[in-house]
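Continuing from the previous page of notes. For each protein in this section, the sequence appears first, followed by its structure tokens. Read the first protein now.
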Amino acid sequence: MHVLVTSLNYKSTPVEIREKFTFQDDLTPALEQLRQSKSILECVIVSTCNRTELYVVADQVHTGRYYTKLFLQEWFEEPKENFSHHLQIREDEHAIEHLFRVASGLDSMILGETQILGQIRQSFDTAREAGTTGTVFNHLFKQAVTTAKRAHSETKIGENAVSVSYAAVELGRRIFDGFDDKKVLVMGAGKMSELTAKHLSSSGVTDITVMNRTKEKAQELAQRFTGRAEGMDRMNESLQSTDILISSTGSNDYVIRKNEVKDLLKKRRGRPLFLVDIAVPRDLDPELAELDNVYLYDIDDLQGIVNANLEERKEEAEKIELMIEEELVAFSHWLDTLGVVPVITALRSKASTVQEQTMESLERKLSSLSEREKKVIRKHMKSIINQMLRDPITALKEVPQEDNADELLQYMTKVFALEDHIEEGESPLTHDIRINKQEREWSIQERRTRLAEKKEALVRTFLS
């Protein structure tokens, strides 16, 4: 069996194609239909604004690839030629690594974002409730979610702003040491203003005013964040009480000029005014920076913050890459046990059956045995069997480390005549998910060495 992921994502697929392949309230029936496809043993569907990904366990690679494509074509009623060249398909080790990277935010448009982790967890929960996951995905997705949680708790990848709108909010937070009792004016009602309002709200801002030329649009945005809406004709009145203004309109000319603000500064009685212009072309007159108690930042200032923070996130991402390498090796070790466990279980089951049958025969032939005598005999028989099984079971546990593991498992199954004791679907020879543990372990050592060298270089820089 093999793990595959078939992906339409923001890196390979334009939005006009991605939007045709999104699942809304129909995820459970989609999962059930995909699971019923030939060769598909388990499946999970992840559907977000930036990606639609089908994770499947398939009995064969080529049929798994074919039927996931066919499912997309039939479910969305789109000809294959319209989307197949955008598909990214990964198999086995590469598919598993991709899942870990996605869950940890390393494959996101904004490096290190955490929203995708919740979406992965929800997708897995939905698939599990629909009954489309099994042994492999129940283990793999739980491990991916746990790894992602570790990645965000043990590194600082999510602490620095890497979007302009978020950087504007973060800058305001630093300058004012928080947003307690601060009045914020968001100028504009487009996408950038919406993101800004969202970041402000999640940062604890409770007093948000949205201002736009079309007041109806301002009202629509303000209502989503329990804010107020104003038309542009209320600019002067709003600026008298505003602490922070973040502007992103579609104007081709300055919306606020130096003279307009200069005239109302006296009414502010020396209170600082923090202005952030994230519009292109700019909304705010650059000469505003010349006024006392007015602090103006434009998109170039913020981009510098974003670039610096992105470099810091990349440093933290390397630590997460190391975690993922280690988790892949751990998953590989777990996979190895899948082939051994059914044989060990069957061996113990057969031994237990032999013990019970022998005991029943003894009781029939020696009907005078007391309960105490039966208990003693049963105990000693069990001891003999456990001693006889100890060496074979120890040898079985070492089989996965051998190059000819499948042949050895077949041999052991034949030697002990276990064919009838291994339950259907638990064949020790069903998994063929390959992860090169030796290469991964070398990579882990290389990453550890590289991180140690960087840390040492930083210490030397600091001391000098």
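Done with the first. The second protein uses the same format. Note its length before scrolling.
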Amino acid sequence: MKPLKPVQLSRDEIAFVKSLVLYEDAEILALNKPSGLSSQGGRGQVHTLDELLWAFARPGKARPRLIHRLDRDTSGVILTAKTKPAAGFLGKALMSRKFAKTYLAIVTPGPPEPVTGVIDLPLRRDEQGREAYMRVCTADHPDAETARSGYRTLASTNGAALMELDPETGRMHQLRVHLAALGRPIAGDVRYGGALVVGGEAVSRLMLHARALSFPHPVGGTRRLEAMPPSDMAGLIAKLGLE
């Protein structure tokens, strides 16, 4: 594999990505990714988070590498490895489903019924031009992928609910599609039918936040990292009475 070519970053970009650091030690670096920043592979002119990781590169050492991704419009905890051994260890742990992820989401038009449960609906990828969607499908569909999501209602009103979500699998857009399948799409999710106005409040982006991540640490033990919801989501939660 060819070594990656360094990306030249501006002083502002370096300061920005360093302001996102949640936790760092000799093996790992965790960031609180904002909504609107692509993890990898963005088609725009703005650098992706993967490219911004060059801000942490050191002479003679590999730059941090992403262990998993978050959708562009999803905020929250994202993990990187600072060494090749750590990347290999964490990659295997992720594949073995030893990571536990917890998300927060605002959904409409109220809490699902039942208010706590597990969504067990297979998903398939649906390519439409340059866009990719995930669709609920039958288990015997040739492209079906197993997908399970635990959920719990934390607070609710007549028009919205604050949900805690624990995906057991990691399919693309899994939580977004599963909640839409319950008739409770995530607010601001235009791709899967989410409301753009909730309780009279405009919703400008996907209200989905990666609140916490638990995982085995490369040097032993388990680490849990948390990130509070960003100000716009926290503000909407307060305005809707979902605190």
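What the second structure shows: The chain has a mean pLDDT of 95. Helices lie at 11-18, 49-52, 84-95, 174-181, 231-239. We return to this in next week's lecture.
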